[in-house]
UniProtKB/TrEMBL annotation, chain A:
Alphabetized UniProt keyword annotations: Amino-acid transport, Cell membrane, Membrane, Transmembrane, Transmembrane helix, Transport
Domain of life the protein comes from: Bacteria
Organism whose genome encodes this protein: Streptomyces synnematoformans
S-adenosyl-L-methionine recorded as keyword: no
Location of this chain's protein in the cell: Cell membrane
Chief location: membrane
Family annotation (Pfam families): BPD_transp_2
Alphabetical list of InterPro entries matching this protein: ABC_transp_permease, BCAA_transport_permease
Protein's UniProt name: Branched-chain amino acid ABC transporter permease
Family (UniProt): Belongs to the binding-protein-dependent transport system permease family. LivHM subfamily.
Keyword Transport listed: yes
Length: 357, 356
């Protein structure tokens, strides 16, 4: 009798706490349902219109979201790979992105033999692939040099490393402005993929699907590398316990260097895709550092699955908010990114797949 | 604390420095006072809020410059009566000051509460995202920022002459320096430092860890807002580009140059930055080596890189180390009153964050 009486308040307190813990989750579920209802039925005064009335626009927006998520994933996967193993937040990631873009544009110009107004028809697939590899290769080497010069000897001092790479960002941005000028430049897609598909009566560019294809390829290759090769195994072990890996006699310095090389290469690939998709200009570096940060904060630092999930969520918000906000409020689209961050952090402070650093 | 305890060498030095700064307007040129020194105080005040969060809270914030800008925009919108840009509410200047500080503090509380469960690198990244999103908010919502920014913002009549703005900057800086240090000794400040060192233990002792972080962020936001008001009065205008990622990084760099866990360092860093910014072009032969004003960011970046390579504690850390090396242990015997040194457990600090 006594015990049952005694357990009463404890039970109710536990229950109340459990309810409190579930409140953010419920709020998020409610918000998602409300947004879905809005997009499907209510979005009348918006650029796109309700999805039930205009399925074509809806489908195009979904495609926009997924393809942009692909680009986000390519850029953010390198960032999260480097962090996962080395606990280094490479704030120069955006600079490497922009550097690769500029180099690729230069190489393409010299391959085509024209410096401006290049017609996509004059660009063969090789005229795009070779500059892409060149740009990403330069970014990879630059990243490796940064790691060897500035990050290798102060391993473990995470904030010092973050601040050093931030300083590098300032220097690199200034030097790129000097070298490549302040005007926006674009990389030209090869003529073979500059077509349009017809999606429910809407024209949709094939190039965006190409970006998605590259992203899927990158994701699959990364996954195979990390799960099926010896290096990948060491990297995964290093993510879990660096000291143990070192204790087993594995040269982890070499593994660090390789990881940084690959991570910077991925930043470079993202940069070339981004330059073909939206151009490269001063400020692109900061933009893409922001994009990578948002993706990994949502998805969880150091997790490849998190990078994919974060890219999809962020890509969805970026594509949907200008299309489905009422027309006079489409300026406020940027705030939706903030709302997304707030919702995710309210449930999981370390991101969807992250764990405490 | 008796008057005698206050008579330490550093306190005397600080008081002497303040006296020198008080009479500075009659010693130095108007340009040095109204341009170099006033800007030093404004940026130093903003950088001191970063130091406060890093030193006591272990949180390196990149959002301080955003809050700095929020105060400026709010003042501009509330105080301006006419003009093509902004809301033109036309309030009394001091009402606008209160409004701007209230909005800034509220924004700081919301942002701080949202970030209160993340620490270290996560906090740095999250506040960086705040800074960039805040920039886009002001850049895209032109109702509150006016296309191209708010211009010809008048300061209150009380601060009319430029030299009064200098004194306002000096006063607020001294207040912030003394105030932040005093906060570090209050119950709240001590709990905050406990939260920095061991959040789990503090939580189990019954302290509300996220609340302490959020309140510290709010206090820092309030001080940054005061700096932002000075800034908008000094500039007379504010535009979204002035709170973009570039200036945001510069403010962190100022805090880092001086040493991110020392309050003196904030103003020292600001002074060094403003000196470089102002006088670099006057150095002889400087353009021969390819350094012009356009390459200014490279110079600043390289300086920060070198400082960070030498010492993560910035200029104050380097100075402390030099002093230690120049003056080997001067004490010949144990100090008479204290006896053998107490076994104090010291923790290694890296950039204001405890390393284990």
């Amino acid at each position: 009798m006594n015990t049952t009486l005694g357990r009463g308040p404890v039970d109710s307190a536990t229950r109340r706490r459990a309810v409190l813990r579930r409140t953010p989750l419920g709020a998020v579920a409610l918000a998602v349902a409300a947004v879905a209802a809005w997009v499907a039925f209510l979005a009348d005064d918006t650029p796109a219109g309700p999805a039930t009335q205009d399925p074509g626009q809806f489908l195009v927006t979904v495609l926009d979201a997924v393809t942009f998520a692909g680009l986000l994933f390519v850029a953010a996967s390198g960032f999260t790979l480097i962090f996962g193993l080395m606990r280094t937040v490479n704030m120069a990631h955006g600079s490497l992105f922009l550097l690769a873009a500029y180099i690729a544009i230069r190489v393409q110009e010299s391959m085509v033999g024209q410096s401006r107004n290049i017609e996509p028809g004059h660009v063969g697939m090789l005229d795009w692939l070779v500059p892409m590899l060149a740009g990403a290769g330069v970014a990879a080497v630059a990243g490796l040099v940064i790691q060897q010069l500035f990050l290798q000897w102060n391993e473990g001092q995470e904030l010092r490393q973050a601040l050093m790479t931030l300083a590098l960002t300032v220097v690199l941005a200034d030097q790129m402005l000097r070298e490549f000028g302040g005007l926006a430049q674009t990389m030209v897609w090869p003529g073979t993929i500059t077509h349009f598909l017809s999606v429910q009566g809407e024209r949709y560019p094939v190039t965006r699907l190409f970006i998605l294809g590259v992203a899927v390829l990158v994701g699959v290759l990364l996954w195979l590398w990390l799960t099926r090769t010896g290096t990948g195994m060491v990297i995964r072990a290093g993510v879990d316990d660096r000291q143990m890996v070192r204790g087993l006699g594995i040269n982890i310095k070499l593994v660090f260097a390789v990881t940084f090389l690959v991570g910077s290469f991925l930043a470079g690939v993202g940069g070339v895709l981004g330059a073909s998709f939206a151009g490269a200009a001063p400020g692109t570096d900061g933009n893409w550092l922001l994009n990578s940060l948002v993706v990994v904060i949502i998805g969880g630092l150091g997790s490849l699955r998190g990078a994919a999930a974060g890219s999809l969520l962020y890509g969805t918000v970026v594509a949907f908010s200008p299309a489905y906000l009422p027309s006079e409020y489409s300026y406020y689209a940027i705030i939706m990114t903030f709302v997304l961050l707030a919702l995710v952090l309210a449930i999981r402070p370390y991101g969807l797949f992250g764990r405490p650093a | 604390m008796t008057a005698r305890d206050l008579l330490t060498r550093s306190n005397l030095l600080g008081a002497a420095l303040v006296v020198v700064l008080l009479v500075l307007p009659s010693l130095a040129t108007a340009y040095f006072v109204n341009f170099v020194m006033t800007q030093t105080f404004i940026l130093g005040l903003a950088a001191a809020t970063i130091v406060f969060l890093a030193k006591y809270g272990g949180m390196i914030s990149l959002a301080q410059f955003l809050l700095f800008g929020v105060a400026g925009f709010m003042f501009g919108n509330a105080a301006q009566e006419t003009g093509a840009r902004g809301l033109n509410l036309g309030w009394h200047p001091w009402a606008a000051v209160v409004f701007a500080l209230a909005v800034t503090t509220a924004a700081a509380f919301v942002l701080g509460a949202l970030a209160s469960r993340s620490t270290g690198l996560y906090f740095l990244m999250l506040t960086m995202v705040y800074a960039v999103i805040g920039y886009y908010v002001f850049a895209q919502i032109v109702e509150i920022s006016g296309p191209g920014g708010l211009t010809s913002i008048q300061r209150p009549d009380l601060l009319g002459p430029p030299v009064r703005l200098y004194y306002a900057g000096l006063g607020l800086s001294v207040l912030a320096y003394v105030g932040f240090r005093a906060v570090g000794r209050t119950a709240f400040g001590l709990a905050l430092q406990g939260v920095r060192d061991d959040p789990v233990r503090m939580a189990s002792l019954g302290f509300n860890v996220p609340l302490h972080r959020a309140l510290a962020f709010t206090l820092a936001g309030f001080a940054a807002g005061a700096g932002g008001l000075l800034n908008v009065w000094w500039n007379g205008q504010i535009d979204p580009a002035s709170i973009a990622i570039g200036p945001t990084l510069i403010l962190l760099i100022i805090a880092v140059i001086g040493g991110i866990s020392s309050f003196e360092g904030a103003w020292l860093g600001a002074f060094v930055y403003v000196l470089i910014f102002t006088y670099l072009r006057d150095l002889p032969l400087i353009d021969r080596v390819g350094i012009t004003e356009a390459r200014f960011n490279t110079v600043i970046g390289v300086i920060v890189l070198v400082i960070m390579m030498l010492s993560p504690e910035g200029l104050t850390g380097i100075a402390r180390r030099l002093r230690r090396r120049l003056r080997p242990p001067a004490r010949t015997g144990p100090a008479p009153s204290t006896g053998p040194p107490l076994p104090v457990r010291t923790t290694e600090k890296e950039l204001g964050v405890t390393r284990r």
